[in-house]
Amino acid sequence: MKKANVAKRAGTRAASGSSREVFRLSQSPSHLLRRAEQFAAELFATSTLQDGVTLRQTVLMAAIAEAEGASQSDLVRITGVDRSTLAEMMARMEGRGLIVRAAAADDGRAKSVRLTAMGRRKLELGLPAIRVVDRALLAAVSGTRRAAFQSILSDISEAADREHVAAEQAERGAKKAPAPAARRKPKASAVKKAGRRKRR
Hints:
It is a single chain. The chain is mainly α. It is 67% helix and 5% strand. It has a domain at 52-142: Winged helix-like DNA-binding domain superfamily/Winged helix DNA-binding domain (Arc Repressor Mutant, subunit A), CATH 1.10.10. It contains 8 helices and 2 strands; from the N terminus they run αααααββααα. Strand 1 and strand 2 (111-115) form a beta hairpin. Helix 2 (29-45) packs across helix 6 (117-139) and helix 3 packs across helix 6 (117-139).
């Protein structure tokens, strides 16, 4: 009888263990996207066409060339690079004479970004490496699935754009919201009267 109960409990544990979902990295979209990004970065890093320019810098210069005069906020959205990292990149690139920043014509608080002549030359040297990376990435996908692959990547990119716009709108709304009214300080005469009452 005891043996039967032990066997029953063991069977129950086995059944509950088998029904528990096992997390597999090979089926995780976020992990697979990171692996794909690492693959692209490694392909670019091993290229001899980059002339000292990183993949992110080339992407940023390509975004600036495509949207000449874009603000830094626009470039955060276009490239997907976070604001602080992008600001550091731009400071270094400006120091190297690749870009120039100036007050935007329609908003003096925003910075309009443009490529210099040197920046355009560096971009022309970096673009072949990006094209090599693009071809290598597409070669990893079967020919019949390449169009779907690019379409899915576009869908994810557009979802990221929507999230970015929503976050910016929420931030602007929070800044415009009126601050809570400060508590009124009691008048000096009222404080004096209260003090007299306590002394009595």
